Amino acid sequence: MDRNKIKERLELALRPAEPPRLEEVLEQVSTHGVLRGPVDWVFPGWMLYVEYATQKIAETFQLSEEERNQLLDFRDTLKRLLLETQKQTKAKLASIYKVVVEGTYRIENNKLYSLDGVWVDVKGDFTPHIPIHGISASTRFPDC
């Protein structure tokens, strides 16, 4: 992937975005099974979807108080993970974008590296992958 293409894709990922609407999120998830767009749209979109799915589960199934609490804990944990992942993703993409604009990056083994060690996979036309570290949680989805 050439420098201009990388820069263009990073600009798209980092551009400001209006908050997602539930209808948009449901459309993309039902059509594609994924959300695509800027970081500031995709992660809030998944959080909105998690909130929606949790509400639908609670409305559809007769849950005991314990099951309901487990479901809400699952929702809250997942939203917290998404928020932290959004922060890390945005910071790493900004770091990569900066070195691409400045021309101070290096590419080795299909990975583009910034000066601070942040890297992203850049294999042909595949979706770039960014490793996210230090985010984990233990939660159990309720057995309804």
Describe the structure.
This protein has one domain. The protein is built from four helices and three strands; from the N terminus they run H-H-H-H-E-E-E. It has helices at 3-14, 22-32, 39-60, 65-102, and strands at residues 106-108, 111-113, 119-121. A three-stranded antiparallel sheet has the order 1-2-3, covered by helices on one side. Helix 1 (3-14) packs antiparallel against helix 4 (65-102) and helix 3 runs antiparallel to helix 4. The longest helix is centred in the middle third of the chain and has 38 residues, at 65-102. The radius of gyration is 18 Å and the shape is elongated. The model has no long low-confidence stretch (mean pLDDT 88).
Brief descriptors of the model:
3 strands, 58% helix, 144 residues, 3-stranded antiparallel β-sheet, mainly alpha, single chain
